[in-house]
C-alpha cells in the first residue's frame, strides 16, 4: 500500500493506492505554507487516516526538484521551498518518499489511465494558468528522479510575429528569468497578456474565451495569434520526443474548440502525418496529480520488491 499526495498551494489531498485501479482519495486538508513542522504533522495525519504503514509515500507538487542538489523549487509554499524535501521527510517519517512535479504526474496519469493508454510515448501538456509538460516513455516517467525534462514552456523561443496577418509580439519577461517563453503566452495569463497587447483591453481569460465562442472578432484575433505562437514549439516537442499522443490538461484544455484548433495547427507543422487528433483533451479529469503520484509510488514500491 502506498499513500499519495497532491500538494497544492491551498489544499493537501491524500489517497491510498493498492493497485493502478484501486486508488481511494482521503479527506483534503489546508496546506500549511509557513511552518514546516505543521506541514509534516499534516502528512502524518493523512497517513494515520490510511490506517497502516505505507511502503512509500509519493507527492505531486507544483514545483521542481533540482537534479543536482535535490532541493525543491516551490515558490508558492515557502515552508518547503529550498528544502531537500524527500530526504528530510524520510528522516521525519521513516519510509521512502518520492517527489514529482505536478505536470509529470499529470503525464503519468494520462499515459497509464487516460488519453495516452496504448501509446508508447506520451507527452502530457498543461495549458493552465501557465504552461508545463511531462514525458512518459514505455510506461516510465522521463524525470522520475526530479529535473526539468518536458518543460516546453520555458526558453526564449516564441516568434516575434504571429497570426494572420502577422502582429508584432514583444518578448515578455517570464518568471523563470528568460524572455519570450511559451509560458508567457500559452496559458490563461498569456491569453490575457496577448489580448492586452493586441487590443489594449484587459479581459479575463474566461471573458476572452466567451467572446471568442460568441464570434467576437477581437477575441478571434487573440486566439489566432496564441495558437500560432504555441503550435510551433509544441510541434517541435512532438518531433523531438516522438510522442504519438499529446493529452492536454489545465483550465484551457476544457475549451474543446481551442484544443481542436491547436491540434490542427500542430499536426500541420510536424514531420509525421497523423490522420487522427494528436493534441487531445485529457481524460483523467478528477485528481490527475493524485493518480499520477500514486502510479509513480506503486511502480517505485514494486521495483523495491515490496508487495504494494
Ligand atoms: Zn520562462
Structure description:
The chain is of the alpha/beta class. The chain folds into 2 domains: 2-101, ATPase, nucleotide binding domain (Nucleotidyltransferase, domain 5), CATH 3.30.420; 115-281, 2-Layer Sandwich (Nucleotidyltransferase, domain 5). Helix content is 37%, strand content 20%. The protein contains 9 helices and 15 strands. Strands 1, 2, 3, 4, 5 and 8 form a 6-stranded mixed β-sheet that branches. Strands 11-10-9-14-15 form a 5-stranded mixed β-sheet, with helices on both faces. Strands 6-7 form a two-stranded antiparallel sheet. A hairpin with a 3-residue loop joins strand 1 and strand 2. Helix 3 packs across helix 9, helix 5 (188-199) crosses helix 7 and helix 7 (217-241) crosses helix 8 (256-267). The radius of gyration is 20 Å and the shape is globular. The termini are close together. The chain binds zinc ion.
Tell me the major beta sheet: 6 strands, mixed
CATH topology of the largest domain: Nucleotidyltransferase, domain 5
* Small molecules (ligands, ions, cofactors) in the structure: zinc ion
CATH 4th-level superfamily of the largest domain? ATPase, nucleotide binding domain
What is the N-to-C succession of helices and strands? EEEEHEEEHEHEEEEEHHHHEHEH
* Domain module tally: 2
- The helical percent reads 25-40%
For the secondary structure, the number of strands is 15
Radius of gyration: 20 Å
- Proportion of beta-strand residues: 15-25%
Number of helical regions: 9
N-to-C span: 5 Å
The helix/strand class is: alpha/beta
Q: Which regions have little confidence, pLDDT < 50, spanning 5+ residues?
A: none
Amino acid at each position: 500500500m502506498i499513500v499519495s499526495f497532491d500538494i497544492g498551494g491551498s489544499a493537501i489531498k491524500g489517497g491510498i493506492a493498492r493497485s493502478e485501479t484501486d486508488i481511494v482519495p482521503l479527506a483534503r486538508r489546508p496546506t500549511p505554507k509557513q511552518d514546516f513542522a505543521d506541514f509534516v504533522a499534516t502528512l502524518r495525519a493523512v497517513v494515520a487516516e490510511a490506517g497502516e504503514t505505507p511502503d512509500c509515500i509519493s507527492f505531486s507538487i507544483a514545483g521542481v526538484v533540482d537534479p543536482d542538489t535535490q532541493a525543491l523549487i516551490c515558490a508558492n509554499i515557502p515552508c518547503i521551498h529550498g528544502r531537500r524535501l524527500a530526504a528530510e521527510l524520510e528522516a521525519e517519517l521513516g519510509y521512502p518518499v518520492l517527489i514529482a512535479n505536478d505536470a509529470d504526474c499529470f503525464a503519468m496519469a494520462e499515459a497509464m489511465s487516460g488519453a495516452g493508454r496504448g501509446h508508447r510515448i506520451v507527452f502530457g501538456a498543461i495549458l493552465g494558468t501557465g504552461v508545463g509538460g511531462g514525458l512518459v516513455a514505455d510506461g516510465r516517467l522521463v524525470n522520475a528522479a526530479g529535473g526539468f525534462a518536458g518543460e516546453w514552456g520555458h526558453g526564449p523561443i516564441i516568434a516575434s510575429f504571429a497570426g494572420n496577418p502577422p502582429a508584432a509580439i514583444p518578448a515578455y519577461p517570464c518568471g523563470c528569468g528568460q524572455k519570450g517563453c511559451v509560458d508567457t503566452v500559452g496559458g490563461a495569463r498569456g491569453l490575457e497578456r496577448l489580448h492586452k497587447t493586441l487590443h489594449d483591453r484587459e479581459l479575463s481569460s474566461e471573458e476572452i474565451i466567451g467572446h471568442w465562442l460568441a464570434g467576437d472578432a477581437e477575441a478571434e484575433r487573440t486566439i489566432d495569434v496564441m495558437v500560432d505562437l504555441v503550435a510551433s514549439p509544441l510541434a517541435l516537442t512532438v518531433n523531438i520526443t516522438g510522442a504519438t499522443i499529446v493529452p492536454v490538461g489545465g483550465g484551457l484544455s476544457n475549451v474543446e474548440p481551442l484544443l481542436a484548433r491547436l491540434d490542427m495547427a500542430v499536426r500541420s507543422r510536424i514531420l509525421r502525418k497523423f490522420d487522427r487528433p494528436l493534441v487531445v483533451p485529457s481524460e483523467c479529469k478528477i485528481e490527475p496529480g493524485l493518480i499520477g503520484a500514486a502510479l509513480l509510488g506503486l511502480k517505485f514500491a514494486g521495483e523495491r520488491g515490496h508487495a504494494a
